[in-house]
Amino acid sequence: MRATGRPTLAGVAERAGVSLKTASRVLNGEPNVADGTREKVRLAAAALGFRRNAVAADLARGGASRLLGFISGDIANPFYSAVAGGIERVAREHGLHLITTSCEEDPARERLLTEELLERRVRGLVVTPTPAGHDHLAGELAAGTRLVFADRPAAGLAADSVVIDNPGGVRAAVRHLTAHGHRRIAFVGDNPEVWTFRERRAAFAGAMSDAGAPGAERWVRPGAHDAGTARALVTDLLTAPEPPTAILAENNRVTEGALRALRAVPGGDDVALVGFDDFPLADLLGVTVVAYDAAELGRRAADLVVTPGPAASSPRTETVPTRLIPRGTGERRPRA
Amino acid sequence: MRATGRPTLAGVAERAGVSLKTASRVLNGEPNVADGTREKVRLAAAALGFRRNAVAADLARGGASRLLGFISGDIANPFYSAVAGGIERVAREHGLHLITTSCEEDPARERLLTEELLERRVRGLVVTPTPAGHDHLAGELAAGTRLVFADRPAAGLAADSVVIDNPGGVRAAVRHLTAHGHRRIAFVGDNPEVWTFRERRAAFAGAMSDAGAPGAERWVRPGAHDAGTARALVTDLLTAPEPPTAILAENNRVTEGALRALRAVPGGDDVALVGFDDFPLADLLGVTVVAYDAAELGRRAADLVVTPGPAASSPRTETVPTRLIPRGTGERRPRA
């Protein structure tokens, strides 16, 4: 879509009356060129609208650019915006620029974008991986490519990762609800193939069993990928013959859907709700959540990217802590 | 940070026992190579961990990549996430990948990022411009670079842009509040240098004058760049000797701060509030807003990027409509 006849380095050199090598030295800011020559080349470049090719310059310097890549799972989810904000802070401290892109949880797209960014010689890459296998990246890692997985580990690949303390967060939520008298607690979650879902679901079943309420698997409802589906699932639960007295929402979108269901279903205001993930204005809505610092998740992932570990054979895993914030919905007691 | 000794095309050619040109043809998927030769080159590339250089391949094809760039103003603001979602949808329809980056409202950073992406031969670029001048991009535009400005026009540059109907939205808000009996309406906004602020502020003054309440400039409070500052500004207004009976919040962050101030200040629940920008869960909080489709803003900007206009000399400007959504806070009447 560009005009044909884009000016070339050769054209600049010709116009300035210097060699190709001299023109290249000037435009890449290299020393040892006479001021008069430098000026001639710059004027020629400006007159022709010549633009230095940064990628070629990067490659000449050894292949690494000043770009740091982040492949998120969903461009419109504020969780990823917060993670990106954390990555960007570290990138900036190291003179790098963050570029982000999103695979929308599509494994084929994730693979394509990973290839695209690596082929553009990004300095490093933070990826929130889809459930697909990542063994195709083993060669990249072995070659020294800086690749870190955020929020979920890579499947079938020993690589650095930063995750949230999912078991700790879910256990705290279950303990909080059982301490308030609940036994019929439903766990409503996203795609059951996603690693975080499986971690949180396992922790839910274990914590319920520990609390003397085994068989909690029958209260698990997967498949709530957006707030609309979550609302429908929670409405179904609450209008069933034996409704739960409390909902544990697996992520911020599920919490939104559950909130809407609780507002709409008669008696919904008596149902307790704890959401995994804090979200903007949750405090004004009085929603009890399992919170953590999403920006810290991003910062730590970026730190791992810019700080190579001792050996590719011993990947590092870091965990971001969670904390339960009581705000109202999680402190409702079941009706006698 | 990559391991030294990255495999080269020459290394692949040597290992496969073919010429450099043949190796290049195979790895770029070009036709007219014997199957056996093709296989030898591929095996050699795999064994060495050789990665094709996509940028070099793009350049060989004429300079344009499959990447579409978006430079936003604030990576953590959900407004930009929604715009990016709209851009991505159009990008995908055209087989392009969106990469986004953020200048955090810093003109120097905006210029640097624009250069970085253009030098990497992105197919086109959507920019939410800072208030700085953009005349340095005139040469790019003239050379046919696809550059579109979103949410704000470029300063000092005739270029395609998509903006929100700021005057219409503000007029609707003022009419709504005056129809509910308000005359003392405060306008609380962000950075006064930003184009959207100036548009909205001018519309506010004009609409107040039209409503028979001139001199509204004394009710304008700029400088609320985040929710915390907005909360402090609104608290100051509400605790002054002659407080406003209604607040018009210039954007989503100001609305959040105003909501918190209204909750905390005695009598704050009686103060009307209309916010520019809809936001997640505003309906559950009962907040009246001036809404628009942020994803549509992104879609239209991307459409302009992929659809060249009739002439660079006659740039296109598109406007996304707004609509007022009454939900409670905007329908409060002043105390008698």
TrEMBL record, chains A, B:
It holds the Pfam family LacI. Residues 7-61 form the HTH lacI-type domain. PROSITE patterns: HTH_LACI_2. Signal peptide: none annotated. Residues 308-336 are annotated as: Disordered. Keywords: DNA-binding, Transcription, Transcription regulation. Transmembrane segments: none annotated. GO terms for molecular function: DNA binding. PANTHER family: HTH-TYPE TRANSCRIPTIONAL REGULATOR GALS, LACI-RELATED TRANSCRIPTIONAL REPRESSOR. This is LacI family DNA-binding transcriptional regulator. It comes from Myceligenerans crystallogenes.
